[in-house]
Amino acid sequence: MTTQQLTQQIHLKKSFLCIGLDVDLTKIPQHLLQLEDPIFEFNKAIIDATHDLTVAYKPNTAFYEAYGIKGWQSLQKTINYINEKHPDIFTIADAKRGDIGNTSSMYAKAFLEDLNFDSVTVAPYMGKDSVEPFLAFENKHTILLALTSNEGAFDFQTLKTNGKELYKQVLETSKTWKNAENLMYVVGATKAEYFSEIRKIVPDSFLLVPGVGAQGGSLSEVCKCGMNKSIGLLINSSRAIIYASNESNFAMKAREEAQKIQSEMEEILKRTNTDYTD
Amino acid sequence: MTTQQLTQQIHLKKSFLCIGLDVDLTKIPQHLLQLEDPIFEFNKAIIDATHDLTVAYKPNTAFYEAYGIKGWQSLQKTINYINEKHPDIFTIADAKRGDIGNTSSMYAKAFLEDLNFDSVTVAPYMGKDSVEPFLAFENKHTILLALTSNEGAFDFQTLKTNGKELYKQVLETSKTWKNAENLMYVVGATKAEYFSEIRKIVPDSFLLVPGVGAQGGSLSEVCKCGMNKSIGLLINSSRAIIYASNESNFAMKAREEAQKIQSEMEEILKRTNTDYTD
After folding, report:
1. What is the C-alpha to C-alpha distance for residues B142 and B132, in angstroms, rounded to an integer?
2. Which of A2, A85, A253, B143 is the most buried (most CB within 10 A)?
3. Taking the model in full, what pTM does it have?
4. Contact A103 B63 (CB under 8 A)
């Protein structure tokens, strides 16, 4: 999927929501545990109930690896289900990978080609040759960690290097890499005040924004400072939506939560003067 | 396994070699491809041929994920085989993971508990709460990326932050984390001159050292600057050993390459005056 197509979907659905599919067997409705693949059945129900309200799904691979081979089967079934039923939805493998060149190539192939995700999250610590193998895939996207939403973000990401914070250096340096047009960035919503600064460095890139809701970030603040003419934001919500209820009506409750966020996004899009043309 | 036990194994085997099990189906002997699980059969042959010469095995998870569910089965069979046949060998899941706290916990459980590796490599970019969940496992080890062996290491790791390079800040900050005694560090051999500096910050920690051999680092130089009284080094070699030949005698050829390195290590250990007591 191209970023133009993603922006089109945002306008069609009046939503720039991304739903995180982070399935924890201890938190899902207990009746699902009797089924052969509870993780997939949970995801399928969530997807069926929310696909018209969201433009992206983001399974975090940790939650699947934690269940070993069965977990990987659930991940594969989930991405296949989305790609077959809803090919217009942008998919993100939240894997936070990164390794030396030949090894990153293996990860890139696994997520972008074999599993056929539209994008994968990647950690920047190992630099250019650890990221470029991901960037080499046409019409696929590499979502680089810049400023994350957790407390530990302040350990290294905000340290000053050459007079600017490390995450800003990551943004700047990454723009010089081959196929940099395939880059998006993770920027946590808990620091809305940083978005204006970030937009000076990457005015055109999509930002994947965790930390709205459960982690306390404000949607309207983030949009005020972070939106660009292509919208340029994917706001992720995981727990607040998928664990809205653990009763048999969990999918309907998840839809209600997604609907609340989508309505807020629709209002914001109405107020925003973008130069979008269909 | 404790670090004391690891040091004992080093003295017993006169080796501080770690063999990287990075299996690429395009590079292994073609006759193995007819078997049901070529990756595991390749690993098994390499392990059978080298286990007395090495103190550690390190599968890089990328090479297994690249083959999807079948790859995970091969990884599971490989770690089970090592743990059953050679419980004295230190095992490293080279996964370079790192995520927000609850997610890192899932990864930690997957690698340190379910797959039962002795250790896992972790990326530091997301800071304290992304690493501490790995450190919480008793007698398990978290091998934090400090200074990697690839060209991209110079993009961010060597940037000056507060007057010192980022990788030194990572070393210093990580020492303040809970259960920091379970930390080891990845330090690339391509920059042997850095080892003396690193030893000033982490005199007692084990360092996992890639980049000897294929990537051009010198074993004796690294040992001169990096060894401590517990030896404190695991020197990794992957391709130079496991792909020494792709003929039917590949395991014997791998053994010959491992033997060369082990002999060099035995010489170095003889020359080194350590205060080790059995």
Report:
1. 9
2. B143
3. 0.96
4. yes
* Terminal C-alpha separation, chain B: 16
> Distance from CA of residue A265 to its chain's centroid?
16
List, for residues A13-68, the tens digit of each pLDDT value: 999 999 999 999 999 999 999 999 999 999 999 999 999 999 999 999 999 999 99
What per-residue string of b and e applies to A91-129 under the rule 16 or more CB within 10 Å gives b?
bbbbbbbbbbbbbbbbbbbbbbeebebbbbbbbbbbbbb
pLDDT digits (tens, 9 = 90+) for A126-163: 999 999 999 999 999 999 999 999 999 999 999 999 88
Q: Determine, for residues B76 and A68 on separate chains, whether the beta-carbon distance falls below 8 Å.
A: yes
Going from the C-alpha of A3 to that of each of A232, A233, A238, the distances in angstroms are 9, 11, 22
A interface test, pick of B22, B60, B125 with most A CB neighbours within 10 Å: B125
* Tokens matching residue A46: 């969530």
One-letter amino acid identity for B76? Q
Inter-axis angle of helices B68-85 and B38-50, to 10 degrees? 20
Question: Domain boundaries in chain A?
Answer: 3-271
Searching chain A, which residue's CA lies closest to the CA of residue B166? Answer: A156
> What are the DSSP calls for A254-276, one per residue?
HHHHHHHHHHHHHHHHHHS----
Find, among A78, A55, A238, A273, the residue nearest to A149 by Cα: A238
CB contacts < 8 A, A to B, total: 172
Residue type, A24: D
d(CA A134, CA A112): 8
ipTM: 0.95
Q: Which residue has the tokens 């919480």?
A: B136
- The contacts found for A101-106 with CB under 8 angstroms, 24 or more apart, are A101/A129, A101/A130, A101/A132, A101/A133, A101/B150, A103/B22, A103/B60, A103/B62, A103/B63, A104/A129, A104/A130, A104/A131, A104/A132, A104/A133, A104/A134, A104/B62, A105/A133, A106/B62, A106/B63, A106/B65, A106/B66
Joined together, the tokens standing for residue A73 give 């089967």
Q: Quickly list DSSP for A71-106.
A: HHHHHHHHHHHHHHH-TTSEEEEEEEE--SHHHHHH
**What is the token pair recorded at B242?**
């496991």
> In B111-249, which residue ranges form alpha helices assigned H by DSSP?
128-135, 153-156, 166-174, 195-201, 219-226, 239-242
B-chain CB neighbours of A25 within 8 Å are: none
Handedness of CA B72, B74, B80, B86 (dihedral sign): negative
Q: Where do we find the tokens 């600057």?
A: B225
Answer CATH for B3-271 from 1.20.5.170, 3.90.150.10, 3.20.20.70, 3.40.50.300: 3.20.20.70
**B143: distance to nearest CA of chain A, Å?**
14
Contact predicate A59/A82, CB 8 Å: no
A159 CB-side CA count, 13 A = 23
